[in-house]
């Protein structure tokens, strides 16, 4: 024990690959979640050997657990959770404990730039590499103009880096072709918040877990993907007055196993279920009529859509029992404090925004928002996805400004000292799927990819590989490692990563952390911010008054410029300085200049950011994605009221048929992060999940004479995957594969090469509103294959 009530689990942390959530610290409703100090040091390193502990937050998911990095002899040698941190109260999960620092400290990091000469990537100096980039960039700007340039970034850089990139793209070059892998990740979180409330910004907070009576997880396997948050839920479930858990997921996940109601829906049918839940809440008189009348718009249209969805009809479409839908609705309709979380089972599935907006609708109908325990968490995934959305590196305008509002564009033009006409705002920003389409068609000829690995993470990989390999496109890849994507680049830039640079990032609950540089980057690797600033300098981007566009010396300058950009907007950072972040472990925005505390929950006053002059969007038709436009929006006089929006159910894009009778869905393992660049370099995590597998229901396995470990080919219209079977509690008719594995197993010989990437099979489709690609539904068939294992 250290402080009272705090246990250090240094020794036990070694076993945390198996003991994913650590020991229980149960607590009752409304109590403070107890502290638990988790720590892991490299083999042979004792606490007294550590030279320094450096303040940071874990960058392996959007939970944003506060931590300190252990440094010895200039190297990262371990990590500990910060017990004073607002988010994790000392805890860390397996990825944080192992992969955060082990993943960085690796012998195969990129240490010099590489350039392609005679078809081969060969080492080059920074000067050579940057000169090649700038030469190509200038030539294309002169010959073709800004639309020749595309930037595809991440949810894993720091706020300062995104803001630099956003200013370069919007005010330096003037291209609308900017997006991040956040499009694959949390575009629907942003869209559903914007459509309902008028602007992005998470209404709820994690303290709502401590206070709720019912917890609904919509397509969110929190136990595997936000392990520390799930520890908090487990501690409530094991304490007095536990909340009732309802889970919507086709698989029998660890969260589903703890649920009172588990709705194992057919992939792609979320909207039908949600409309039935809305139907039940309205039909049983569970709505808070006074709240709805005072604070919302659109009830009649919502009622018309929901009326058609009796529990029986939804039960048939979703493949669940009508009585379970009724029970879930009753829990929602009669609990005092419901907390909902939504993630990829909704965001990457059919009709993503429409389905996710129904979660907002349920809360609005019940007047359950902004109160302790009554909250919405339209979740994030990546550690810094939120900052990409805030700063506009994803194509939106910075500070949740509205591209259709000329005053917002003028504000930015003043801030950046450029003509408003330079800033792209004549059409919606180009989303990632469209961006890659433009590369395919040849209109984008300069593509700069930072901190993402699209050759594994985008849908329909054979197509993506062809696009990236097009000889006429100049591709820059900026990464820590020579990834599958970097192998296809013309120039590869070695980046410094977490622990090797300073910057801020914001988790799913608007909580900002400062991550300080702990060690020097390897070789010649440079911070992404320095790389972007170097490019801006070499391109000689200037303000109208002749001064350089970006005069920042480092992250502090970039952060201060961002604070100014955020002033007066929903994500106001003007009261959160680096020094504040060194004092307080985790600070929520908005905090305005002069304020010293933050409000935990948005919208307690039910005053939503839907004022036409203030809102981030005028909204869209949820079925088609068509723009509502300023006139129609203002004519509704929303002025602080939220929107109850819906769309008619249309079902998955590629329903099963005779040739491809099974529904394919994809997702994550607790042990790996995405394309495994860090987790595969942690020996413990890699050993826990070294290669791909596919999950089948017992009935589907039996029908094909298959058992655990048998090798199968899973084939869709676009590609194939070969993997051993795991028979699990997944709903019959559904096949699941994790998407972490690259396109070939590390082969001993050419004959053993086999496709292992889930995205060989996925479909090139996206949600009409958020443009988030559909990774969770496709039609496949499964057959036994004979392969060496
Ligand atoms: N261990 C680990 N943690 C991570 C990550 C990681 O790679 N590894 N990545 C981080 C990131 S960036 C993200 S975005 C999050 C993602 O976190 P989650 O969204 O929790 O993860 P997924 O496994 O992608 O999807 C969640 C669940 O959706 C279910 N599902 C599939 N199709 C459907 C459907 O049509 N309807 C419903 N209701 N459910 C469906 C799947 O069975 C799966 O269990 O995790 C973050 N945390
Ligand atoms: N089938 C299927 N596909 C999916 C999903 C799914 O559920 N199913 N989920 C989608 C989602 S939600 C996401 S978020 C994406 C993730 O997809 P990706 O973004 O492609 O996955 P990562 O492996 O996290 O790639 C991040 C890269 O950034 C590098 N990197 C890390 N830190 C830094 C840094 O500081 N600087 C630089 N320059 N590089 C850095 C890493 O080495 C890594 O190569 O995948 C999506 N694809
Ligand atoms: S829950 Fe997320 S942020 Fe926290 S330690 Fe695990 S990976 Fe890191
Ligand atoms: Mo994500």
TrEMBL record:
Domain (4Fe-4S Mo/W bis-MGD-type) ranges: 51-107
Query: Which terms does the UniProt entry file under GO BP?
Result: nitrate assimilation
Pfam families named in the record = Molybdop_Fe4S4, Molybdopterin, Molydop_binding
Keywords from UniProt, A to Z, are: 4Fe-4S, Iron, Iron-sulfur, Metal-binding, Molybdenum, Nitrate assimilation, Oxidoreductase
Q: GO molecular function terms here?
A: 4 iron, 4 sulfur cluster binding; metal ion binding; molybdopterin cofactor binding; oxidoreductase activity
Q: Which cofactor does it need?
A: Mo-bis(molybdopterin guanine dinucleotide); [4Fe-4S] cluster
Q: Does the keyword Acetylation apply?
A: no
| Superkingdom as given in the UniProt entry | Bacteria
Entry keyword annotation includes Transit peptide: no
CDD domains, alphabetically?
MopB_CT_Nitrate-R-NapA-like (cd02791), MopB_Nitrate-R-NapA-like (cd02754)
Q: Which family does it belong to?
A: Belongs to the prokaryotic molybdopterin-containing oxidoreductase family. NasA/NapA/NarB subfamily.
Q: What is this protein called?
A: Nitrate reductase
State the organism named in the record. Agromyces tardus
